[in-house]
Design a protein that fits this description.
The protein is mainly α. It has 2 domains: about 1-55; about 55-173. It contains 8 helices and no strands.
């Protein structure tokens, strides 16, 4: 009885947390079909805001650029992060701890500070600001999440298995 009550309370707690997180998103989705400009009162169902979105060239160009940057930075950071994780956890070399510490810096520094620092660096080396610098900034930030973090958080069995087969973290499931 005690275990059932505890399990019910835990399930209820998790449900309430998810409702707290997802209810605003669901409300926003419903009100995106509202005919009124102000989403205070429901005035009717319409697709006109989505038609307006699809006819706005600036927003479509921004979405295209976002997808291009996301795909490129993800592919580059996964390759670099995976190769870095293999090198760090399979081989011993001088400066390994320093490199591991440097690669974990993006996990510690707030994103806004990292972004401003990279902007200052790109301006200092006179790298033209555009898609290339944006991809470089995203790769710099996400390498730690793609390659370094999974091996650091693995348990002992998985870590010993990772030394034999480092690509275990890439395989889904």
């Amino acid at each position: 009885m005690k275990k059932t009550k505890s399990s019910f309370i835990k399930s209820l707690y998790v449900f309430l947390i998810f409702m707290f997180l997802y209810t605003p998103i669901m409300v926003l989705m419903v009100y995106s079909f509202n005919e009124s400009k102000l989403n205070v009162v429901w005035t009717g169902f319409t697709f006109k805001w989505y038609q307006s979105l699809m006819n706005n060239a600036g927003i479509l160009e921004a979405a295209k650029n976002s997808f291009q940057v996301a795909i490129a930075s993800t592919l580059i950071s996964v390759v670099i992060g995976t190769l870095t994780a293999i090198g760090l956890y399979r081989y011993k070399f001088r400066g390994k701890n320093v490199l591991d510490t440097i690669l974990n810096i993006p996990l510690i520094i707030p994103e806004i500070v990292m972004g401003i620092s990279l902007l200052a660096f790109f301006s200092m080396v006179q790298l033209p600001l555009g898609k290339l610098s944006l991809i470089a900034a995203h790769v710099t930030f996400s390498i730690a999440y793609k390659g370094i973090l999974p091996c650091n958080s693995a348990n002992d069995y998985a870590r010993s298995y990772c030394r034999r087969l480092p690509c275990i973290y890439i395989i889904p499931g």
